[in-house]
Amino acid sequence: MNKQINLRIDNINVTVPEGQTVMQAADSVGIHIPRLCFHPKLSAMTACRVCVVEIAGRRNLPTACNTEVSEGMEVKTNSAVVRRARRDIVELILDNHPRDCQICERNNNCELQELAVVFNLDKLAYEGERKKYAIDDSSPSIKRNPEKCLLCGKCVRVCSEIQGVNALSYAHRGFRTTVTPAFGLNQQESVCINCGQCTLFCPTAALTERDVTEQVWANLQDPEKTAVVQVAPAVRVAIGEGFGLEPGRDMTAETVTALRRLGFKVVFDTQFSADLTIMEEAHELIQRITKKGKLPMFTSCSPGWVKYCEHFHPEFLENISTCKSPQQMMGALIKTYYAKKTGLDPAKIYSVSVMPCTAKKFEAGRTEMNASGYQDVDAVLTTRELVKMIKQAGIKFTELKGSSFDEPLGESTGAAPIFGVTGGVMEAALRTAYESLTGTSLPNLDFTSVRGLAGIKEAGVEINGTQVKVAIVYGLANLHKLLTEIKEGKRSYHFVEVMTCPGGCIGGGGQPYPKGVTEPMDFAVYQKRAQGLYAIDANKQIRKSHENPQIKKVYDEFLGHPGGETAHKLLHTHYHPRTPKGIASKVKDTVNIG
Amino acid sequence: MTKTAKTKELDKDTQKKLLQLNDFIAGSKVLKDKQSLLMGVLHQTQTLFGYIPATAMDFISHKLGVPSAHIYGMATFYNYFQLTPKARYQIYLCKGTACYVAGGARVLDKLKEELRIGVDEVTADGLFGINITRCLGCCGLSPVMQVNDDIYVRLVPEKVPAILAKYRRLGQPKKKAKATAVAVGGFEQPGK
User: Fold this and answer.
1) Is A321 a catalytic residue?
2) What distance in Å separates residue B67's CA from the closest CA in chain A?
3) In chain A, where are the structural domains located?
4) For residues A252 and A375, is the Cβ–Cβ distance under 8 A?
5) Among A43, A52, A259, A438, which residue's CB has the most CB atoms within a 10 Å radius?
6) What is the ipTM of this complex?
7) Cα(A165)–Cα(A157) distance, integer angstroms
8) What is the pLDDT of residue A113?
9) Class level of CATH domain A142-210
């Protein structure tokens, strides 16, 4: 199995294990063969043919992404023939692509555009028929523009192989081939769960988030409205990338200042409501365990997972925690507690959230989410949209003097930032549940067994002599595997943390696009973002949600106690089966980052 | 936002055909996995319904465990599969070289004139549809036309009205197909 193969690539001797592809072998000696349809975590499809190479003895130019190495192989990745072929391939793709780079969302961050520049395409020789399709903006989360689609199929594969959702597929044939939801319906009528991974994997702007920046600007400049904003944990360690900074750098303070400069009157922290979520969720978990409620309990923070459950596994809906997500808890509190406290008319509050997530846009519009009597969160911006707004406003983000969140919904503990990384909600919940059940102080707050970027993690924590079994999972194809095994009785847990996106929110569909040769699900990038969040946790004085003084105050002044009547009315909800009923695809092996 | 698709009752005819499809699936020999039955099941669907309605694709999706987006992809890939209702009498006029040279085009003009429809269209009463085909394998008898399973040879435009009249006599106009139909997953058929 571990047989080594010797070959030569561009006159460099390479030794790699048997079974590797020419592309992998080239990567190992620092040769980046250009690619559009290839991603290391997806099956190779050879749709784009940009990765062609010359192999001695072969009549044609094979694609490097799916050609296995063999002993004595002579590969040329940069011969005149190869360069010419790649250039022609890129040109032919461009011939059937709109020429509107200047007004395209992905301008300067488009894989096709980059290849056109790299291959020196100075003129397009052919002028032929070009595909014409309407833009699908039916979904509140995802915008689909099939005219910009190269048919690389990365969206189809990420939706199927990583998320197991299969909302998209190729349809029709030849020139008329297009990527579409079932029956040619629109995105909103499909089983799409709005996770937005397709927007990260798309090399062009065929799939993007539904931009609401104009709507937010209009409300920011409306003198009648008080604009209130909240920022999710994972945004602060990724937003810097939009301004050329290293992934993982904590830009919390700069983000707060930037939001004030954009015109937000009040800047709250979703980390406050993350602490609040832990209060409610830990309470619910204890109730379910001690009163023999439905187990395992699943976390409910990730709106992609919630919609997935409604479409694909309605039998598990009762297992989802009734707690709303931190975004929605904050939304409910802003238009009730905060409005009352400050004498603001909730009808005149414009509540915005900044999220690493496209599915949060859908969540905000759910009919369940108007506990205040109004839509609790009026608009959701992704990290990318906020970057755009900051640039529009000419704010020199990296030079900003930092500032802190507003009271009374701005304080958070170390348990909150880690919500943004896989395993974090579990760790935060365990810290509070442990102390609540045992009445003793935790000797070590770091539950390292639930950390790391693996797709499925398991741990056991002894609390009061009971072994509490937990699991942490990201990627819904991984989850489907886990749920199937729970049903078969092969696995059993008390508590399961589910994050829709690989790595958790740090890898959310609304995070900055990968740049240059980094890819979505790039281990190095996600690792840095995760480390950024764990560093924020480690540097906090208070690291347990139940010790957050502001949380105690909100309970005293307004909510009563966890699971109490007011808390229940504002912070909890139930979900219902949703049509169309989906068919999940199975994965043989757990999908991991890196 | 949380729009739930309306679940409409299926008409009796569709229900009956879905049951027949169910029997067909149950009676098929599974070689590798259920998914590999898809091609045969789509063929059977077209035989039963005359075309492949979204309702049936949704049904198959749940029976075989294949996501509906992929079934739609396969059904639209192959020319043979029709996604919209077909006419009761499908006219396939040959426009292969021999038939074309022998005056097939004039026969087509006559058909269009008589039925007042174009190629790939269906008459309002659902009785006739005109399709173009390439070579029916009897070039010596050109121009050739096929109506369902009947072949007509050595055609001239003058013969067309009598042929159509024969099928008008034979066929009672089909009952109008229900505009929408919904199955297991609740997909509505795209309005055509």
Assistant:
1) yes
2) 5
3) 1-127, 142-210, 214-571
4) no
5) A259
6) 0.90
7) 10
8) 94
9) alpha beta
Instruction: Write out pLDDT tens, residues A311-358.
Output: 999 999 999 999 999 999 999 999 999 999 999 999 999 999 999 999
> How many CB atoms lie under 10 A from the CB of residue B192?
7
- Tell me if chain B has a CB within 8 Å of the CB of A588: no
* SS3 letters across A511-537: CCCCCCCCCCCCHHHHHHHHHHHHHHH
Q: Do B67 and A183 touch (CB under 8 A)?
A: no
**Nearest CA to A498 among A313, A248, A337?**
A313
- Distance CA(A285)–CA(A506), nearest Å, equals 25
B51 touches chain A (CB under 8 A): no
At A494, list the tokens.
């008390």
Contact A365 B1 (CB under 8 A): yes
pLDDT of residue B8: 56
- Closest CB to B5: pick one of A173, A366, A580: A580
Task: Give yes or no for A208 touching B (CB within 8 A).
Answer: no
Q: Which of A171, A365, A367 sits opposite B72 (nearest CB)?
A: A171
Largest CA distance in chain A: 80
Q: What is the mean pLDDT of residues A503-509?
A: 97
Under a CB-based contact definition with an 8 Å cutoff, are residues A427 and A418 in contact?
yes
Q: Which of A54, A241, A254, A281 is catalytic?
A: A281
Helix (H) or strand (E) holding B93: strand B89-94
A1-127: CATH number = 3.10.20.740
Out of 2.40.40.20, 3.40.30.10, 2.40.30.70, 3.30.70.3270, the CATH code matching B89-170 is: 3.40.30.10
Structure token digits, residue B6: 């309306």
Residue matched to tokens 């980059």: A114
Q: What is the DSSP letter of B133?
A: E
Residue range A214-571, CATH number: 3.40.50.1780
